[in-house]
């Protein structure tokens, strides 16, 4: 609808700008949820943009917090725990590797080789990750907005000892790029590359040990979790699974597990009762588990007054199942999405034959649980701000022209563009 220019980044400024934009488009009464990063300016209980926007709209909204945001914090916490805090935006070992890259023999790389990989827990993760990444890359239709997503997955397969190229072709490694401390994906890609060529690139014993721990965690657990998290119906079950896996990872490395769990513990409200019903439409959840969730929701009734960010007790959550996270606001949230709650009284085994289920699933599938596209839009507008016009009204109109053009013209192939030459 628009990319608003703010005078400040406070929660009040963001809430006011969003509210005015909703009023301008006359859709204030149509809003049911918010997609956002979990920064304090957004999620603060008194002055956060989410709370203030709810007050302005005078209604409760669903919280579709960005899963990628917390995943960035997790990998950042693990990296800092292993390599220590940095006083510089650049990372010394990455900088050395970038300079050394021309001397690397790309045909001579070595995957992970750690005796802990024989443990049942890691062996199971190893098998699941390889299968998932191969299917995802083969499909070619998944969530892959940038080339570095694909590079990260390919390097993950190489780290795990799986070939990426078919027909005995050699994998072509990309030249190491930006190594700024803030680029979380740069950390994963750099560490994968450095560890693959650890026998060619000089490392200290401490660096080798830390790289091993980082690559083991990233390849066995983190990459799959990152790629999986944008699917809305799988979001709660993925969140709970990630928490359980991070806790269990303590048997592999307590240092890594504690660092990851510390970051995740501050965001366990992701598993709030309002979003748990999304799992009813997930193929990852068994029919029996869905039945338990339905029974719990019917038993709890509806109460939308109990709403907002509430932290879980991490110790109690370790043994929780999905139906145990249901509360009175779960059914209210489902109704807020426009889902007919009669669905809860039906046997989940027969849902696929029900028009009620098809309609509800189409709604759930349209939800965004990551806000990557919004971030890219804001970044693009910031880069080009005032390059075309300095008039804010004209800038907002230009945003709509671009949006309309994207809807009318599906791609930029010559055959497609020729159809619009004379229009």
Could you explain the architecture of this structure?
The protein has 423 residues and is an all-alpha fold. It folds into three domains: 1-66 and 371-393, no CATH class; 69-230, no CATH class; 269-368, no CATH class. Helices cover 52% and strands 2% of the residues. The protein contains 18 helices and two strands. It is globular. The chain starts with 10 loop residues before the first helix and ends in a 5-residue tail after the last helix. The mean pLDDT is 87.
Largest sheet: 2 strands, parallel
Radius of gyration: 24 Å
Query: Shape from CA axes?
Result: globular
Total count of domains? 3
How are the strands of the largest sheet arranged?
1-2
Note the beta-strand portion.
under 5%
Give a count of the beta strands, DSSP E runs of length 2 or more: 2
Q: What is the helix/strand order?
A: HEHHEHHHHHHHHHHHHHHH
In the predicted model, the low-confidence regions spanning at least 5 consecutive residues are none
**Oligomeric state:** single chain
Number of alpha- plus pi-helical segments: 18
